[in-house]
Amino acid sequence: MKLLEDKIKTDGTVLGEDVLKVDNFLNHQVDPKLMDAMGAEFARLFADAGITKVLTVESSGIAPALMAALHLNVPMIFARKHKSLTLTDNLYTARVYSYTKQVNNDISIDKRFLNEDDTVLIIDDFLANGQAVQGLLEIAKVANVKVGGIGIVIEKSFQKGRKMIEDTGIRVESLARIAAFENGEVKFVSES
Amino acid sequence: MKLLEDKIKTDGTVLGEDVLKVDNFLNHQVDPKLMDAMGAEFARLFADAGITKVLTVESSGIAPALMAALHLNVPMIFARKHKSLTLTDNLYTARVYSYTKQVNNDISIDKRFLNEDDTVLIIDDFLANGQAVQGLLEIAKVANVKVGGIGIVIEKSFQKGRKMIEDTGIRVESLARIAAFENGEVKFVSES
User: Where is the Phosphoribosyltransferase domain (chains A, B) (predicted)?
Assistant: First the structure.
C-alpha cells in the first residue's frame, strides 16, 4: 500500500538492526485517516473471504482492526492480554511470547463471542516472529472457527512470522512488507 | 445519545450494585458502526472547541477516541499503561488507581506528541470514579496543553467522577448518563 509505505519512509525511524519505530502514527499517536484507508484496503482484499468477525490483540491492533471491521461491516473483537491467567471456563486462552519484552503473556477471548459458523479475519499492527498471530490462530482452532485470512499492517519479511503463516496455508496480506533495513533506511519488498 | 442508550438497554448486563457489563459491543467485542456514530457525535459536540488532538488511555478508550479523532480530523494519542514505570525523561506520566482491579498503574505519553499550542479532547469509555481522566488531566497540566473538553461514552453519574470533573470547570459530555441501577435495570438521567 503506497500510502503506508510513503508514511513509513517519511515518519518512521529505524533503530538498530531490526526495530522500526512508528509511534507517531500507528502505535502511540495514531493517524485516523490512515487507519481508515488501511481498513478500507483490508476490506477490499478480503471482500470475498466471507468474514464474520475481525480479531486482534490489544492495544496496537485495535485501531486498524476497528477500521477493517467498519468497512467489512462486522464486529471486531480484541483479545485481552494478561500477565498470566487463572484459567476460567468462559475464556479461550493462548500463551504469547513477546520477543521485545522477553515475557510471556496470556491472551484471551470470551467464549460467547466466537461461534462455530464464524469466519474470522486476524489483524495485527506488526508481523515479526508471529507470536501474537500464532496465539490467535490457537484460539481460532480451539473455538473451531474458520480463519478467512490474516491482515498485517507492517511485516518484517526477514523475520520468521511470514514463513510460519505461509506454512499454515492461510492467506496473508501485509500492507507494507519490509525486506531489510539498510543503513538506517527501510527497504520494501516492493522495491526489490 | 438515544442509539447508545438503546444499545445499553438491549445488550448491557447489570451485575450487582454498580457494574454494567458491555463487553459485547464496547470493551471486548466492539460494534464499529456504533463507535463511528459515537465519534461523529463527539465531533459535533466539540466542533467549536478548537481541538487539535484526542487523548485516551489504552485499551477500551481507543475505539471511541479513534472515531472521534477521525471525525474531528486530528491525531489520536493513547496513553500507555504500565505496572509501574521507571521514570524516563521523555515521558509525561501520571499514577492511576483502578478501583475495579485495586491496583495502581502508571500511564504515560511521549513528550514529543504534546505541544504547548495543543488543545486536547479527553475521551474514555467509562466515567466512574474518574481516575483515568484525572491521570490524563495531570499529564495535560504538566505538558501545559489546554483541555478543550472531556467526552465519555458511559457515565455512572452516581459515582464521584462527574463531580470531580465539574469542579475543574472543564466541559464534560457523556453520551449515556446512568442515574442508577434499579432491580438489575439501567435508569438513565434522561429518563428521570
Answer: 48-163
**DSSP E strands: which ranges in chain B?**
13-15, 19-21, 29-30, 53-57, 76-82, 91-98, 103-110, 119-127, 146-156, 172-182, 185-188
Tell me how far apart the alpha carbons of residues B46 and B150 are, in angstroms, rounded to a whole number. 9
The three-point CA angle B49-B54-B55 to 5° equals 125
The DSSP string of A128-145 is SS-HHHHHHHHHHHHHT-
**Residue A145 corresponds to which cell in the numbers above?**
472457527
In terms of phi and psi (left: phi > 0; alpha: psi -120 to 50; beta: otherwise), the region of A52 is alpha
What amino acid is encoded at B39 in this protein? G
Cβ(A124)–Cβ(A153) below 8 Å? yes
> Cα separation of A162 and A177, whole Å?
10
Examine the predicted complex and report whether its ipTM is higher than 0.90: yes
Q: Is the sign of the CA dihedral A120, A151, A22, B147 positive or negative?
A: negative
| Structural domain count of chain B | 1
Q: Is residue B13 part of a domain?
A: yes
Contacts of B80 in chain A (CB under 8 A): 28, 59
Q: Chain B residues within 8 A (CB-CB) of chain A?
A: 23-25, 28-33, 35-36, 58-59, 62-63, 66-67, 69-70, 73-78, 80, 109-110, 112-113
Contacts with B45 (C-beta within 8 Å, 6 or more apart), sequence order: B149, B151, B173
Residue A105 inside a domain? The answer is no
* In-domain check, residue B44: yes
Listed as ranges, residues in chain B with pLDDT below 70 are 85, 87
- Does residue A71 form part of some domain? yes
pLDDT digits (tens, 9 = 90+) for A118-176: 999 999 999 999 999 999 999 999 999 999 999 999 999 999 999 999 999 999 999 99
Domain that includes residue A45, residue range: 2-79+112-191
CB A66 within 8 A of CB B30: yes
Q: Kindly report the CATH number assigned to the domain that includes residue A52.
A: 3.40.50.2020
Count other Cβ atoms within 10 Å, centred on residue B130.
Answer: 23
